[in-house]
Amino acid sequence: xxxxxxxxxxxxxxxxxxxxxxxxxxxxxxxxxxxxxxxxxxxxxxxxxxxxxxxxxxxxxxxxxxxxxxxxxxxxxxxx
Length: 80
Fold this sequence. Notes:
This protein has strands spanning 38-42, 47-50, 55-57, 62-63, 69-70. It is mostly beta strands.
């Protein structure tokens, strides 16, 4: 008796970019990725989905489409 092979799962749940406008937004692997257009905003939950597939959090942390995490990078407050 043969054992059934389970179906293979897609490697990503979200495409790396859903940007369809011109000029195209920066991809998620570029340093200026935060300039991409917001396609879903959830300020009550503290995050936004950018058209390049990156999740941007209110604390300035990010989750990239390939699973990499970018630590929060808020500028330090001005000193008196």
